[in-house]
Amino acid sequence: MKERLDKLLASTGRWSRREAKELIREGRVAVDGCPARSGEEKVDRASGTVTVDGAALTLQTHTYIMLHKPAGVLSATEDPRQKTVLDLLPEELRRREIFPVGRLDKDTEGLLLLTDDGDLAHRLLSPKRHVDKVYYARLDRPLGEADRAAFAQGMVLPDGTRCRPAGLELIGDGSEVLVTLHEGKFHQIKRMTACRGSAVCYLKRIAMGPLRLDEGLEKGGFRPLTAEEVAKIGGKP
Ligand code: URA
């Protein structure tokens, strides 16, 4: 697939889109040996050779970052007042135009994938694909067998929202649970447990499809996905 040259240069993380345009204007960029004229020029990163000041660039396809989201930051790329998950990353990564795949509430912790691969994000979030998301929750009142059955059946929330069948695994006396969702509605777990008379005190996502939160990552820590993880989620390394 062909991409705009300025976008492709920015995707290396070395230049912003504006800086990339400047490089092109200064005649420092060549595509397949010919000086580039405009950022709009289309390049195939799989087969094209792009040089800057004569040095060939390694054209990595996409960026995939696993973040251990801490509480207190928004799952957004920017916000005028509040800290976002992108503020936790270094400038070099922020330049790659990455975004969070789906949202966790501000007070929810755990696994968040950030990428610039829009196709993959679409596939992981598509309701048709039923990608499992697993959460650990601590509750103010234990849930029990009847609640497990209600989750498994598919609940209808007081406002009429229909939830797909979800997994509820009770830990100990049921004041800790593992919830498996196959969709991602607004505040879904908080609303489902509230419907059964129990409030969430703490919520952490531990898995999304085949991806598990690396427990070696501190809150606020991040790392690139391994090649194996990228392959498992269907990304393009
Ligand atoms: N369910 C919630 O209530 N909050 C989240 O952040 C994720 C799932």
Molecular structure report:
This protein is of the alpha+beta class and 237 residues long. Helix content is 22%, strand content 27%. The protein is built from seven helices and 15 strands. It has helices at 5-10, 17-25, 91-94, 118-125, 145-153, 188-195, 227-233; strands spanning 2-4, 29-31, 34-35, 42-44, 50-52, 55-56, 64-69, 99-100, 109-115, 133-139, 167-171, 176-181, 200-208, 211-212, 222-224. Strands 7, 8, 9, 10, 11, 12, 13, 14 and 15 form a nine-stranded mixed β-sheet that branches. A four-stranded antiparallel β-sheet has the order 3-2-5-6, with no helix packed on it. β13 and β14 form a beta hairpin. The chain binds uracil. The site of uracil (URA) has 9 residues, from α6.
SSE arrangement:
Elements: E1 2-4, H1 5-10, H2 17-25, E2 29-31, E3 34-35, E4 42-44, E5 50-52, E6 55-56, E7 64-69, H3 91-94, E8 99-100, E9 109-115, H4 118-125, E10 133-139, H5 145-153, E11 167-171, E12 176-181, H6 188-195, E13 200-208, E14 211-212, E15 222-224, H7 227-233
Parallel strand pairs: 9-13
Antiparallel strand pairs: 1-4, 2-3, 2-5, 5-6, 7-9, 7-15, 8-9, 10-12, 10-13, 11-12, 13-14
Bound molecules: uracil.
Uracil (URA) is lined by residues 104-105, 108, 135, 187-190, 203.
